[in-house]
């Protein structure tokens, strides 16, 4: 299996350097195995794509220096950055795409955990659940913790889905991703992917991942009241829109 890593980034030169240092180098072959007695599979990382969302710092320079491909999307929005990266891959797509944030809160070394269900053929979308994994004290603000309980509860109620988290660290088969018709351009991107996957009957699974407290910079979402309010309302609206067929 081939896969590409997509990293949306806005003014993240410090933490991004750490994320890129922890990821395999483009062209590297990974041996993925759930456990010592489990079957092993090979996966090749073709490219790391950093979607620069209008950074004013050296985010793009740091990415290029680490061998990543930089895609520019000056129109602000988490989803807009992800969509720009996917558009750049469309002419020569991988078998799967891994999404990870640029703030180094997720652990890139846990990448094989997300790839294993895809490789064994048991899932189309794999979400790294911070709720099921190890959450460092202070990794979530109270508002984040509340929202991360409410949104999965709605997904469970509306689709009977087994879901505990909206974690951004995730892997999805390219064909499955293209079939979702993703369009959200900001805060609703992650929940839109899960809601559309549940609505279309895709095989969705979660794997436990760790989550660290942000140590460099301030979150664009949880670090401001405007970000918290905007993200919360957009997530709820996105769930409702997908449920109504939008």
Question: What can you see in these coordinates?
Answer:
- With 246 residues, the protein is of the alpha/beta class.
- The chain has one domain: Spore Coat Polysaccharide Biosynthesis Protein SpsA, Chain A.
- The chain has eight helices and eight strands; from the N terminus they run E-H-E-E-H-E-H-E-H-E-H-E-H-H-E-H.
- It has helices at 13-22, 59-65, 78-89, 111-119, 142-159, 174-180, 189-199, 225-243, and strands at 2-9, 29-33, 40-52, 69-72, 96-99, 125-129, 170-173, 204-208.
- Helix 1 (13-22) packs parallel to helix 2 (59-65) and helix 5 runs parallel beside helix 8.
Spatial shape: globular
What is the CATH architecture descriptor?
A: Alpha-Beta Complex
Our measurement of the CA-to-CA distance between the termini, rounded to an integer number of angstroms, reads: 32 Å
Class in CATH? Answer: Alpha Beta
How many domain regions? 1
The largest pleated sheet is described as:
8 strands, mixed
Q: Which structural class fits the helix and strand makeup?
A: alpha/beta
Query: What's the name of the CATH homologous superfamily?
Result: Spore Coat Polysaccharide Biosynthesis Protein SpsA, Chain A
**Can you give the mean pLDDT?**
92
The sequence of SSEs as H and E is EHEEHEHEHEHEHHEH
**Helix segment count?**
8
| CATH fold topology | Spore Coat Polysaccharide Biosynthesis Protein SpsA, Chain A
Overall strand count: 8
Report low-confidence residues grouped into runs of 5 or more: none
What is the CA-based Rg, rounded?
17 Å
Please bin the fraction of helical residues: 25-40%
Proportion of residues in extended strands: 15-25%
């Amino acid at each position: 299996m081939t896969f590409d890593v997509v990293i949306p980034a806005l003014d993240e030169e410090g933490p991004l350097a750490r994320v890129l240092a922890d990821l395999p180098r483009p062209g590297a072959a990974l041996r993925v195995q759930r456990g010592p007695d489990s079957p092993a599979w090979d996966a090749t990382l073709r490219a790391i794509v950093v979607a620069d969302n209008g950074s004013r710092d050296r985010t793009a320079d740091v990415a290029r220096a680490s061998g990543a491909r930089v895609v520019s999307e000056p129109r602000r929005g988490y989803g807009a950055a992800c969509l720009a990266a996917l558009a750049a891959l469309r002419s020569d797509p991988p078998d799967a795409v891994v999404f990870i944030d640029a703030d180094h809160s997720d652990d890139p070394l846990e990448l094989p955990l997300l790839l294993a269900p895809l490789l064994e053929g048991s899932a189309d979308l794999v979400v790294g659940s911070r709720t099921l994994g190890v959450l460092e004290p202070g990794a979530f603000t109270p508002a984040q913790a509340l929202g991360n309980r409410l949104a999965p509860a709605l997904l469970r109620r509306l689709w009977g889905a087994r879901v505990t988290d909206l974690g951004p660290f995730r892997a999805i088969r390219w064909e499955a991703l293209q079939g979702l018709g993703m369009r959200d351009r900001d805060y609703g991107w992650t929940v839109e992917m899960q809601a559309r996957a549940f609505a279309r009957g895709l095989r969705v699974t979660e794997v436990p991942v760790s989550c660290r407290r942000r140590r460099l910079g301030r979150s664009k979402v949880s670090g401001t009241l405007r970000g918290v309010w905007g993200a919360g309302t957009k997530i709820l609206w996105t769930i409702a829109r997908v449920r109504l067929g939008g």
